[in-house]
Design goal:
about 50% helix; alpha/beta
Length: about 260
């Protein structure tokens, strides 16, 4: 009698599954519904941009973004925010989904592989996305709740970088996955800890650093962005040239 091997595919969300930032969509939708002011949303958007554009292994930037995320949701009723999140999914998230990524995820589900989202965005929002798409579940940054209201504090660390690797290791232990048999997908080099934790990593819409690493390691690369036909040819050429450049020792000029 053969034992069934339980496997999972772990997907980043922003720019891997969704074009853009999930937490930005949530903030935008809440602003439009009068949850906070222009100055509130401006501070949040600035922190979000800094978080995504700085390479973001800097703890002060992570802390700055985490505080902005806490501040904008703090004090609000959980059920009310969930209702708003449902509307925001329909308005902003659903039209921004990468169909190619959904097809990859669906193929895994058809093969009996669980599909989990892993994101720095609030876990409640990530769970909503997973539910709408028929995925297994989601891991995200957890907001503290007291008496049915968000407190404005985090229940644990921001799920970013190395924390994603910690999270999937924990759920693998809980659900009986062997990570060497599992799959990982991301667009960002910040998710290398996650990708290196699984036996089958892949890049989706990769940034330059991740593309270089994927080429070096022979990881599959999927690119669903506009101009992808051009990028399919030029992107690998540019990335290979950059990778080769890192391996070449500069020649000293003779005097």
């Amino acid at each position: 009698m053969s034992l069934t091997v339980r496997r999972a595919a772990f997907f980043d969300v922003d720019n891997t599954l969704v074009r853009g930032s999930t937490i930005y969509f949530l903030g935008r939708g809440m602003y439009q519904r009068g949850f906070f002011t222009k100055s509130d949303i401006s501070r949040f958007v600035l922190a979000n941009l800094r978080f995504r554009l700085t390479g973001t292994e800097k703890q002060d930037e992570i802390n700055r973004f985490q505080k902005s995320a806490q501040d904008f949701i703090g004090g609000h009723n959980v059920s009310e925010i969930r209702t708003v999140a449902q509307e925001i999914y329909d308005e902003y998230v659903s039209p921004s989904l990468w169909e190619g990524t959904i097809e990859i995820a669906q193929a895994h589900l058809n093969d009996g592989v669980e599909v989990w989202l892993v994101t720095a965005a609030p876990e409640d929002m990530a769970t909503l996305i997973a539910e709408r798409l028929g995925f297994t579940g989601a891991l995200g940054s957890k907001a503290a709740i007291v008496d049915g209201h968000y407190t404005g504090a985090m229940n644990g660390p921001l799920l970013h970088g190395k924390e994603k690797a910690v999270a999937i290791a924990e759920i693998a232990k809980e659900r009986g996955f062997v990570l060497a048999d599992c799959f990982g997908y991301s667009d960002s080099h910040n998710d290398l800890p996650l990708l290196q934790s699984v036996g089958h990593p892949s890049a989706i819409n990769p940034d330059a650093k991740l593309r270089i690493r994927a080429l070096k390691e022979n990881w599959p690369i999927h690119d669903f962005r506009r101009m992808r036909s051009i990028n399919r040819y030029l992107g690998p050429i540019v990335s290979r040239a950059a990778w080769l450049g890192t391996r070449l020792t500069p020649r000293r000029e003779s005097r």
